[in-house]
Amino acid sequence: MRTSEVFLIPMSFHISLSLLFLIFHIICAPVFAQQERFPFVAEAITDRVHVRAGQSENFESLYRLDRGTKIVVLDKQYSWYKVKLSVAAKSFISSKYVQSGDGQLGTISGTRVNVRAGKGINHSILGQLTKGDRVTILEEFDGWVRIAPIRESYGWVKENFIVFKSKDVALYKPIVLKVKKPVVPVKVEIAPAVEPQEIFLDVKEIVEVKDEKVQKVEEKQEYFVAVMGYLKKTGAKKYTLLINNRLKYYVDGNAEILDQFLDYQVTVEGSVQDKAQLSDVPKTMFISKIELVL
């Protein structure tokens, strides 16, 4: 009769194995926990990473990330990360429910207005707006307007395309151009005995002249603008923004930074001295913020 062999494992081996598991848990667990503690900043590990309107590849692509692009992760469901949307994301509402105001700002006139991932009611719903909400209008189409993503709308990225970068969400910031507000030259009429002179004043300031007469300076109204277009350079120091292949704005900002965005589609925010969008004559925009459209 054949007897089975029995191998005895020393007790010390069991203890050593258990100790290894314990050490692994102590060292690695905090790392895994940190990565899944929301929110955090993640980074795309490849090019053309789709940010979608839902947790499936069947949903629309709102925009794409290039390798190294950072994004804020807010949550996770199954194998999909819920992320904060960039201004490059597709975000549309029906033009019937928005009233244009000064600059590129609009006011919602309807109730429960759906924000969609495309121009049409067949596209996915990203969020809802209600009467009185303010939006930034980026582009206008036949029956639809593209707006900057609202705070309550999100995108989704497959987990294997982004990696943890930092738990400090404050590190994630769009490229911002800090431009000192220019002093506007204003012509002032003074007493006949004195020649006209050009002075530099802040907006709405009052000037006192030699004959002790106080005259009110013409008020210069500024308007906030947020638009999307192609940044071009027409001369040594002349930057322009083309919208629908038409010159719309001259751009004033930091040349070293603007040069990085030449010939690319960008979204910009800034101010102009009058309602440039109501005139065919290009106006100068003083840039405060610029982002690349992916």
UniProtKB/TrEMBL annotation:
Q: Which Pfam families match?
A: SH3_3 (PF08239)
Q: Where is the SH3b domain?
A: 103-166
SMART domains associated with the record: SH3b
Under PROSITE patterns, the record lists: SH3B
UniProt protein name: SH3b domain-containing protein
Name the PANTHER family on file: FAMILY PROTEIN, PUTATIVE-RELATED, GLYCOSYL HYDROLASE FAMILY 19 DOMAIN-CONTAINING PROTEIN HI_1415
Coiled coil regions in record:
none
UniProt-listed InterPro entries: Cell_Wall_Dynamics_Protein, SH3-like_bac-type
Give the source species: hydrothermal vent metagenome
